[in-house]
Design brief:
The protein is mainly alpha-helical and 383 residues long. The chain has one domain: MFS general substrate transporter like domains (Growth Hormone, Chain: A, Up-down Bundle), CATH 1.20.1250.20. Helix content is 81%, strand content 0%. The protein is built from 14 helices and no strands. It is globular.
């Protein structure tokens, strides 16, 4: 359990980093003297870094001691955070975001690969604990932004504080012994059936994480454009993360009572219904609050339970997790960028259209994966 606590602390730091970008977008745009359409390229830079990190670094968790690698990645994230406010040119901010994406990808892959090494087939509730910790970090991040948003030096204080809060995870990772790799099977099934399952999971994460990243990155701006003040929008963003975190906490218990696929499909259905309601009902402060809370509650269980489903079907290694995160990173890069291109011209509700389309597509992927799983079981029985 001690290693689960360590990975959870690392994922709190990860949530702090991921949750910081959306609420600080307007301040970063002002700091670099660019428009929102241009600052949205930060999503591309960070996600491109995440894809590179997932591919180049992720597989090393199958080969070397994981904790020093995780510590180095966390320290790099802290350094990049502290440098963000000093970047007054967009190109410099994009470079820092790319490096931060690489480091956070390493933490993300490492957490998933290492916790599977520790808990094996019993990993699902422990993985939910880790994802709950990510939600805690994501909740704290916009709350921190809200405290300093009206100060002239608010951007500097926010990012410096976020960087400092990452350092305890660095120290704990260095002090804790890495899980043994000797019993870990680095080989993955290479049949076409298993290859197609990996592709379907990657597409699922491209769509679902794309919707999740769109909400996390744009809900603050969506609320402002829909009539909320800056402080109210920051509190709505915090409400999303609070609901997200509470739902992740509830998921720890739910994973012991229900199978992964049922929880994923139910969560997708509630999220789509919430987004559709926000498209059909005229926007008001009450609706904005309901949307933030409803989307946070419904989206939170999807990611950890899909990983639990994947562990059951495929088994998770650093390499396989890296492929999943490449799909996730592509989604978190592409869809927030698309929203940025149309946010002003088409209106803020482009966010909800993206959420509805992506989550419906993710639902279709889960149906296909269920069919593939049944065929996999047949192959195993015949073997």
């Amino acid at each position: 359990m001690s290693k689960t606590i360590l990975y959870s602390i690392a994922f709190i730091a990860l949530g702090l980093v991921v949750g910081s970008l959306g609420p600080t977008l307007p301040a970063l745009a002002a700091n670099t003297q660019v428009e929102m359409k241009q600052i949205s390229h930060l999503f591309i830079a960070r996600s491109l870094g995440t894809m590179l990190g997932s591919w180049l670094i992720g597989r090393w968790y199958d080969r070397v001691a994981g904790h020093p690698l995780m510590a180095a990645s966390l320290l790099t994230s802290a350094i990049m955070l502290s440098l963000m406010p000093s970047a007054t040119f967009l190109w410099a901010l994009l470079a820092l975001s790319t490096l931060m994406g690489m480091s956070t990808a390493s933490v993300n892959v490492g957490g998933h690969a290492l916790i599977v090494l520790v808990h094996g087939e019993r990993v699902r509730p422990f993985m939910s604990v880790m994802h709950f910790a990510f939600g805690v970090g994501g909740l704290l991040s916009p709350m921190l932004v809200a405290q300093f948003i009206h100060r002239s030096d608010g951007l500097q204080i926010t990012y410096m504080t976020l960087g400092l809060l990452t350092l305890p995870a660095v120290a704990l990772s260095l002090l804790s012994r890495s899980p043994s790799l000797k019993d870990h099977d680095n080989s993955s099934p290479s049949t076409p059936l298993y290859g197609s399952i990996i592709i379907l999971f990657a597409i699922f994460f491209f769509l679902e994480i794309g919707a999740e990243a769109a909400i996390m990155g744009w809900y603050f701006s969506f609320a402002v454009e829909s009539g909320a003040g800056l402080k109210s929008a920051a509190h709505m963003n915090s409400a999303f993360w609070a609901a997200f975190t509470l739902s992740r906490l509830a998921t720890i218990w739910l994973t012991t009572q229900f199978n992964a696929v049922s929880l994923v499909m139910m969560s997708l259905g509630i999220a789509v219904t919430t987004a559709l309601a926000m498209l059909m009902i005229p926007t008001s402060p009450f609706i904005l609050w309901i949307g933030a809370i409803g989307l946070g509650l419904s989206i939170a269980p999807i990611f950890p339970n899909t990983y639990g489903f994947a562990q059951r079907v495929l088994g998770l290694s650093g390499k396989v997790t890296g492929w999943f995160l490449i799909g996730s990173s592509a989604g978190s890069m592409f869809w927030p960028w698309v929203i940025g291109q149309f946010f002003k011209s088409a209106g803020p509700h482009v966010l909800m259209w993206v959420v509805v389309i992506n989550l419906c597509g993710a639902f279709a992927m889960i149906v296909l994966l269920m069919r593939k799983e049944s065929r996999t079981d047949i192959v195993k029985d015949e073997g």
